[in-house]
């Protein structure tokens, strides 16, 4: 593994709280400090590496793992893990994860959700490929969902969709990421990191022009989602990482998720349209 990491991570608790406030204001998920996902970037097979970079689609790739804020901007990018691993496997080997576990990220201590006495940690939101933990929320299994679980999944999906759109915009604008990069892994990593830096710069400086492929748009009166343009073009989409089967989950992490569920279905935490959409 030849990882390289790019950081625009908040430096203190107040800056993290700004990230969380934006997620709550824009996407109705409190205490969210980022949406996380990973994608494969295809490379030419490096000489002498055997199946080390071979992914589940039998191509060769490096993994781009990223955490995105509420404005579609990359907070953390980790590039270079070989394509054989899953989303969760990449995350547990990132510098971000190590700092998170060692409490070196200055993330705020758990506190009460707005208008309640429910004390919750600050969390990332991810998909089924990630392990549920105290600081990473994922959906409930979609089989035989209760109404309350379906509401939780909907609310999490609204927040997690941000990272999907960030990747979609990135790939549609920097199309080298959609081709097989015929360079050594070290050079390919540098290219990917440069693209993410340019994405953040252009998002901030030339947002309306840069985002010409658009975002998903949700009509909250009907529940219908109009997909961003990039979703209709399969050639503009990076390869998803493989989803792993369910695994044992620590009881405290389940309780954190249940607390969010209780909040989202309470008078204080519900949004007016959620019952019409699930």
Automatic annotation (TrEMBL):
InterPro entries: HARBI1-like (IPR045249), HARBI1_dom (IPR027806). Signal peptide: none annotated. Its cofactor is a divalent metal cation. Its main location: nucleus. Keywords: Hydrolase, Metal-binding, Nuclease, Nucleus. Residues 36-200 form the DDE Tnp4 domain. GO terms for molecular function: hydrolase activity; metal ion binding; nuclease activity. It is found in: Nucleus. Pfam families: DDE_Tnp_4. Belongs to the HARBI1 family. The keyword Ribosomal protein does not apply. It comes from the Eukaryota. The keyword Nucleotide-binding does not apply. This is Putative nuclease harbi1. GO terms for cellular component: nucleus.
């Amino acid at each position: 593994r030849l990882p390289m990491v790019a950081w625009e991570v908040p430096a203190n608790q107040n800056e993290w709280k700004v990230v969380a406030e934006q997620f709550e204001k824009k996407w109705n998920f409190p205490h969210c400090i980022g949406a996380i996902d990973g994608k494969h970037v295809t490379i030419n097979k490096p000489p002498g590496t055997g199946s080390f970079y071979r992914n589940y689609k039998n191509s060769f790739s490096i993994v781009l793992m990223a955490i995105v804020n509420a404005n579609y901007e990359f907070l953390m990018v980790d590039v270079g893990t070989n394509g054989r691993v899953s989303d969760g496997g990449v995350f547990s080997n990132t510098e971000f994860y190590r700092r998170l576990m060692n409490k070196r990220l200055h993330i705020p201590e758990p506190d009460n959700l707005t208008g309640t006495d429910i004390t919750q940690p600050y969390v990332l939101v991810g998909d089924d490929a990630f392990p549920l933990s105290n600081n990473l929320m994922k959906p409930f299994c979609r089989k035989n969902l209760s109404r309350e679980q379906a509401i939780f999944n909907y609310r999490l999906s609204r927040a997690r969709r941000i990272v999907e759109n960030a990747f979609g915009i990135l790939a549609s604008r920097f199309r080298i990421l959609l081709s097989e990069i015929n360079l050594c892994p070290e050079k390919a990593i540098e290219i990917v990191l440069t693209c993410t830096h340019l994405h953040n710069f252009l998002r901030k400086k030339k947002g309306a022009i840069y985002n010409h492929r658009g975002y998903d748009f949700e009509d909250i009166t009907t529940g219908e989602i109009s997909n961003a343009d990039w979703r209709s073009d399969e050639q503009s989409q990076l390869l998803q990482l493989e989803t792993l089967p369910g695994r044992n989950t620590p009881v405290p992490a389940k309780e954190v998720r249940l607390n969010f569920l209780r909040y989202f279905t309470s008078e204080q935490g519900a949004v007016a349209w959620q019952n019409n959409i699930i």
